[in-house]
Amino acid sequence: QGVTVRALILLNPQNPLGDIYSLSELRDYLEFAKRHELHVIVDEIYMLSVFDESATFHSVLGMDRLPDPQRTHVMWGISKDFAVSGIRFGTLYTENQDVANAVASLCYFHGVCGPVQHKVAQLLRDRDWINQVYLRANHARLKAAHTYVTDELKTLGVPFLNRNAGFFVWIDFRKYLRTGTFEEEMLLWRRFLDNKVLLSCGKAFECSEPGWFRIIFADKTHRLQLGMQRIRKVLEGREQEILAEEKEQPCQSDQDGKADSTDEVIFVSRHQEPTCAGSSNLGDLIGLLQQQMRSSDWLQKNTAEQFA
């Protein structure tokens, strides 16, 4: 396509699929990159969030040798594995002095403050607590939450990728789309949002096929129960709409271009659709979300005192 590729990016464990690369896969990717003189950026930010004992994570840095050490760069941070995204602390391992110097120059303006460095150093030194207490508890909670969400999906008859790492499940909602288009995916995404469930649609991940969504399950049980109830409500309503449309379809041939139901008329009137196909992008999602947040009275109704 006339684009010069400079680097290969690997996220291991993967987001949004939850896949874990095997050692042989990692070796193949690194050898491929070496043959084509590509840098490899390996992001292992979910490396400690493999919650099933049957799965084994292999870090690139655990390999016997790196095929091209000067072009292999490994990143990790505490925001995911330790649930402290607000601290904004990450690490970069590279043997390439030019890359290290460039990152060091950026740190003049984007460095990690001294108190945070000190606290993180204290945390990471306490390996007994991390290995014997924290990770065991975290993995057990992640596994329990994942089991609950996937069991609910099985009950609903919804296909999904069953993986054992990360915080997310990649779900197949294609059967709930009237037409296999990203515009229809956006309508379903908005239906979830109207019912106070914020999922990530496949379009946001450059998915090649409409109808895939990512759900985050790393939360407490009572919130997951409420979220799955709302998802069930949306899907059941969607099924009824599709069935009703299929029954009415022979009688609707003279009404092309009209909305199929009163609900659809209301739904379309509440949301401005993009003026051209393909313009529904992440910016549209963010703009819509900001608009709904500004117009919502949720914060007024749900006070801290009420939650307490």
Write the layout of secondary structure elements.
Layout (H helix, E strand, L loop, with lengths): L6 E5 L11 H13 L3 E5 L28 E6 L12 E5 L2 H14 L3 H12 L1 H30 L11 E5 L9 H13 L5 E2 L10 E5 L4 H28 L13 H9 L11 H14 L2 H4 L2 H4 L1
Helix pairs in contact: 4-6
Short description:
The chain is of the alpha/beta class and 308 residues long. The protein is 46% helix and 11% strand.
Average pLDDT metric: 88
What is the ordering of alpha helices and beta strands? EHEEEHHHEHEEHHHHH
Number of helices: 10
Radius of gyration: 23 Å
Largest sheet report: 4 strands, mixed
**What's the domain count?**
2
What is the spatial order of strands in the main beta sheet?
1-2-3-4
| C-alpha termini separation | 57 Å
The CATH class designation of the largest domain is Alpha Beta
Number of strands: 7
Shape: globular
* Helix-residue proportion: 40-55%
What is the CATH superfamily label of the largest domain? Aspartate Aminotransferase, domain 1
Please identify, by name, the CATH architecture of the largest domain: Alpha-Beta Complex
Estimated structural class: alpha/beta
Low-confidence stretches: 257-279
CATH fold description of the largest domain: Aspartate Aminotransferase, domain 1
GO molecular function: pyridoxal phosphate binding; transaminase activity
InterPro entries: Aminotransferase_I/II_large, Ethylene_sulfur-biosynth, PyrdxlP-dep_Trfase, PyrdxlP-dep_Trfase_major, PyrdxlP-dep_Trfase_small
Organism: Podiceps cristatus
Protein name: 1-aminocyclopropane-1-carboxylate synthase-like 1
